[in-house]
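> call design_seq(struct)
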């Protein structure tokens, strides 16, 4: 009887560890204008889907998001010189009105290492000395706008675009 109980406890512990591994996640900074921390990009998976969440901080908002996911770096759309082409990324979304959180939910294709290029166009309201929004002569609110990338390794090209990796683990 003690062996059966010990076996069941061991089995439950192993299953608990496997579910923790399968739900692992990677969180990278969403950098605007190369150095401004405008938020995060979080990647995780379950047994069915891959989740990529862009989330902004400190008043930044998402205006557009572009996402490329591939099993090799060469499969991310790039110029001949190695600059990524966000307009040709598989997943894109315009956010009108702007949002602070957006999640792509994608069916899992394979397990293993994925190369991820997560790009965003972000904006932040320009405030006056009293902390109030500012407006131009036509009454339009003024925003600071920047390009952002999920922080990681540099592409080979001559810009500051980045990619990072995520290892998909699916429970058996």
């Amino acid at each position: 009887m003690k062996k059966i109980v010990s076996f069941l406890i061991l089995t439950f512990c192993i299953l608990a560890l496997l579910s923790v591994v399968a739900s692992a996640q990677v969180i990278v900074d969403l950098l605007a204008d190369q150095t401004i921390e405008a938020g995060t990009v979080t990647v995780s998976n379950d047994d069915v889907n891959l989740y990529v969440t862009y989330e902004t901080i400190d008043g930044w908002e998402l205006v557009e998001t572009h996402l490329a996911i591939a099993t090799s770096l060469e499969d991310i759309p790039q110029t001949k010189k190695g600059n990524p082409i966000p307009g040709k990324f598989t997943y894109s979304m315009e956010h009108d009105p702007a949002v602070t959180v957006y999640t792509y939910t994608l069916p899992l294709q394979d397990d293993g290492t994925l190369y991820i290029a997560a790009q965003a166009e972000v904006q932040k309201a320009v405030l006056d000395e009293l902390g109030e929004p500012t407006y131009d002569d036509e009454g339009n609110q003024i925003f600071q706008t920047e390009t952002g990338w999920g922080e990681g390794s540099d592409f080979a090209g001559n810009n500051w675009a980045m990619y990072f990796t995520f290892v998909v683990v699916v429970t058996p």
